[in-house]
Amino acid sequence: MDNDKPKLNIQREDVAPCRVKLTVELPAERVAKVYNASVASFNRQAPVKGFRPGKIPLKLLMSRFGEAIADHAKGELLQAGLEEAVTQSELEPETRPVIEDEKSLRLLPGESFVFAVSFDISPSFALPEYKGIEVTRDASDVSDDSVAEWIDNWLERQSRYAKVDRPAAEGDLLKASYKAVIPEGAEAPAATAKFYVEAEDTWLPLRDPELLPGATALLAGSVAGDEKDVDISFPAEHGEASLAGRTFTYHIAISEVHGLEKPEFDDELAQKVGMESADEIRDRVRENLGVEKKREQDRALRDQVVRALTAGLLDMPLPPTMLNRTVASAMQRLREQAQQEGTSPEETQKNHEQTLARANQQAREELVRFYVLDKIADAEQIKVEPADLDQAVGMFAEMERATPKVVLRRLRDSGRLNQLLMNLREAKTVDRLVELAKVTEAAGE
Hints:
Blueprint: E1 9-16, E2 19-26, H1 28-45, H2 58-88, E3 98-99, E4 113-120, E5 134-137, H3 144-158, E6 160-163, E7 173-181, H4 194-197, E8 198-205, H5 215-219, E9 227-233, E10 247-261, H6 267-272, H7 278-310, H8 320-340, H9 345-350, H10 352-379, H11 386-400, H12 404-414, H13 417-436, E11 438-441
Parallel strand pairs: 5-11
Antiparallel strand pairs: 1-2, 2-4, 3-4, 6-10, 7-8, 7-10, 9-10
Helix pairs in contact: 1-2, 3-7, 7-10, 7-13, 8-10, 10-13, 11-12
């Protein structure tokens, strides 16, 4: 904007919390200047047969291109006027400014040009005291029970099925042959159901998911060599339609029982996985659990600091457009989570109001966190340094097995670079808050 250009006549109206409407008036002299420049531009460029560029009679030019000339001038005035109005008002739009009734706006040479624009702005709030927030760090000790539990779970994952000489129990595998008896005159199951109906020397699991419904209860206690006739009932919702809701008598011959055997935790097992002894495994587990626990403690500590800081600000006004967008994103996440947890569409619809309330709460917490941390970052003059970006890009490059240059280009092309920079600045701000906090260490177990 030229320094000698007169200020625009602007009227501000707060139409909602964190949303303003600016009514902007550009003076008639400026309108005439822009309009005349538009006329001259069309005169030079408009293709009119029989006339050289710049020599088209004004009356002819206006009859053919008058509306286009006015629209072009209007666009120029709106673009320049919007930019100047935002700058002059010392506002930073949080959402894209929207011109009201743009299509109905008319430009008349010799008259001023008035338009209205509305957009969200960031909330105005007093920053709470953020230095010396009192938080508690959980005990960092790793208990013997935690180590033993991890090792036991690891041994479970190393378990393998092996032939056993005992009665079958839940969780075992039976090597067996079976055949269903199809009553005379009954509809035969489809060809796709063949494996359910008859098989030789196959595996029958006595655990979920069962191949033959009810097999665990019916065959537990069996031993190798047993032959049994049992009734198998397929549920109405069974995936094989030709079996759904039907009951058949099966003849089952069991040849072997296989049980899941957990390996012994000893030096021999340790050497198989590249360590010298069971004690070395135990020490390594304790060390890794300690590292993971410290990560959890750090996350919890950072979360404590932010929650303590924002707790009294959750009711502050927020930009309505951004709040609506964030609520919509939160709703989508909650619906996807419900779907992954197996919630039916009917149940999801029934819980709509509760889900919407949760989405509103999450969205409000997310935005308040953003604005509070952004304001603290300004106060503490926190910036993302080139080394911070290089480190983050390097991590992505390692994960994606690409070069940092390629990853950086992808981030720029996808528009995700700005979001990454915002995330890095926010993370550095929380780091600073933890440094400034009064941390009390909780007593160990």
